[in-house]
Amino acid sequence: MKNAIITIKDRHIQDGEELTAELTTSGSFELTEKGCTVIYKETDEEMTDCITRLDVEGTQRVAMTRTGKFNTEMVIEKGSRHTCFYSTPFGELIMGIYGMSVESNMSENGGTLSFTYTIDFNNTPASENQLHITVAEKE
Fold this sequence. Notes:
Strand order of the largest sheet: 1-2-3-4-5-6-7-8-9-10
Order of helices and strands: EEEEEEEEEE
Structural class: mainly beta
Radius of gyration: 14 Å
């Protein structure tokens, strides 16, 4: 694992309204046989002590696991819907995740990851989401 500075840009559209957020944090990354792994500490006050791990398989699949105060498991797979468990400060949810796109331009020095997906509850659309992650190796 290499130390990194990680910037996450989150964009989601819910009820016709677009919301964006940006987070910069420290973490680590490594290239793997199937793609890459990125690990970072959440900096939002509500997510204190949570660690997020992204296991990326090329341009097909991202498995996101968050551990700590709130535990989450999500799979974003291009062209597939997965039922996922998501824990928040407001309670636990089971939701559907449909992967629209997964892009990875990672190298041994860092790079970018982007993925777009929709969220639904009981097959009722809730939001469209896009994460764009920049990983820069920390010297």
